[in-house]
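Sharing a chain and its predicted structure for anyone who wants a worked example. Both blocks are below, sequence first, tokens second.
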Amino acid sequence: MRTKFVSVIILVFLFSVGCEDETASTNNNSLTNNSSVIPVRTDCTVHLNLDAASESSVHLSGTFNEWQLDDSWLLERDGYTWRKNITSNPYEEDGGAILLSPGEYQYKIVKNGDVWELDYTNPYTAYDKTQQIENSLLILPDCSGPYVTEEDVNIDFSSGAATLSYQIYRPGDGSKIIEVTAVLLRGEETVETDLDFNESSGIVTISAQNLEVGKYKIALTVISENQGVFERKYGFWMEEEPKSWDDMILYSIFVDRFNNGDASNDAPIDGIEDQINWHGGDWKGITLKLREGFFEDLGITSLWISTPMDNPDYALPGDCDRSFSGYHAYWPQAAREVENHFGTVDDLKELVQEAHSRGIRVLIDWAANHIFIDHPLHEEYFGNQFWFNYPGSILEKEFWKNKCGYLGWNEYALTCWFTEYLPDYNHRNHELLKMLISDAMWWIDTFDLDGFRVDATKHIRSNYLRLLRKSLDDNVHSMNAPFYMVGENFLYDYGVINEKISSSELHGQFDFPMYGAIRTALLGGNSNLLSLNTFVYENLINNQYITGLDWGLEGSISSGTLMGTFLGNHDVERFSSVAAGQANGDGCQAFNEPLVSQPQEDSIYQRMSVAFGFLLTVRGLPVIYYGDEYGQAGVKDPDNRRPMEFSESNMTSAQIDLKNMVSLLNKARTQYPSLRKGSYDAAFGSESCLVYLKRLGEEKVFVVLGGNNGCQVQVDIKSDYLIPDGTVLSEVLFGTDTITVVNQKINLDYGPWTVRVFSAE
């Protein structure tokens, strides 16, 4: 059946056999029989398969059988596998499946009657009521309603056409589908569309024409004859080529310090120093820069903005014997209220929609480790250790004993407080996790967000992150609009960083090891580019077996992984000031000494250009901290959060050159997939010259980085590059240089601090 309404609400009443439509793809008279052709959902049965070894028996024991060793929960051995099927569908045809009501159940695997273990095949866990025992978590959906899966997304950018198809499944009892409703949304505006339903297969196809660039959502509702309902929104992007997060370049914005678009919400706090006060940056300021084309000019394709939750409006004690404002937005005092200094709900919606209309994704900082002490949740459960961790003292006057700095950031990582007015969530509390996940879904749905940067993952238990990821996958992730969740664990050890990365947890974490390698190689006046090549081979290729960026096919980390790579962020000293020798490591330097000036040495910005040359041509999601594109100065927090400078009249020529280089590199990375996803192969390496080939399919691109002594070398073209003599390599950043392959060699002659990218097309 095919129907069209300008109102964009498309209804298919499958029980109404008298509704004749000449455009119908099938005969309406067969609709009363759709229960015999549309498939029934099968996702309500869990098939438990455990590797079998020498154990003589394996039971399941849990809340479903009051933790007894019940032989009805004895797994059956099938060769080298122990098996048991569990279902919430009473109509399940497998007579051997154990029937349970929909819901959640905690359980353990019991081997030989006395060895109790977590189910290693199930990533989801929950703590018991005592919060002392972690159990595996069985999650059984309610099968009384219909179900939908995505099938295909087809975008014809040239005509602005989109066709999307979904497979509808009948409820577990086989009830007929009687109604399908679809609304196509661009932001909060409805868009005209068509719906075509094939009652023989259960495929619903939604199509639209003349769509503008941007993000769209299809709100799909399916109702069955037994009044079961399925509702979900599916996102997709109208853009020239489909993009995933490994195609993005992420720009990190400290909202308060970026751009003031609305002076009426500034409200600085009286009596505190300027550098730790509110400066007036807001969401309208970012929207203005979007409309000016600032981000597109720089080649940025995604934005990471500060935590949007409301923070206290008064100053609070902090380090260095100062009182601070909450300008950084890491003191959330409300679950679903926006930060008034940043603007209104409508301001944030406008920002996101403006970004989406330009193909730019928006990711927010997600603070899930703690809340502000006056948050309603803490007031409700004040002193309740089942909701908040009190590792040092439960007495309000002794909350300072709960601080990480007092107890130990590592020893008490999962329970300590960042400071005495930031109670630490007890992530063992399953009820709390459900609330936090519900809040996360609210923010995503209300503002149409595209990703989370999860703050302080070192301090958050995996049981929360995994259940959050499940909710994202079930309710937000779409084939053409994937939701990205990257964590921040301020460590230089891949072994620890990778612990929270998997197909059921974080998609990636910030790559502090690579950050350290880049700074070590280029902060000093004498470069060590060979160390960057060593880093790639020792840490990525040889150890993690990542030769390209398709982590789903190779690498020791689970599929879907994408690390965030960076040169600076809001927690570290700015590259330019460290390179200039201005940073002394004192955490109170910005208060105890005069603020450092912007470095004037040209080579500092030239070194940064080489650092960006590496960052933007290797694997990962590049993250550019606001102001780093022109080498903003700053020592430790809060000095590394200076106001953004937009006027080039206030920059030196070397800073402008750096900014231009970053823009050129960003655009080259977007233009050449091999730079972001291709395999890495070193062609030449020394302390002052690094040449490597990035290759993806037939596309081959050489990257040339010159250090303090330049890059004057002859480079052999390896036979497996398949680049014949006579091939002309064209420089793609500046479009001026060419190099011809002669006798399977190329000659390079570049001075100090050089970045060049050559295409072998």
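Comments welcome. The two ends are 49 Å apart (CA to CA).
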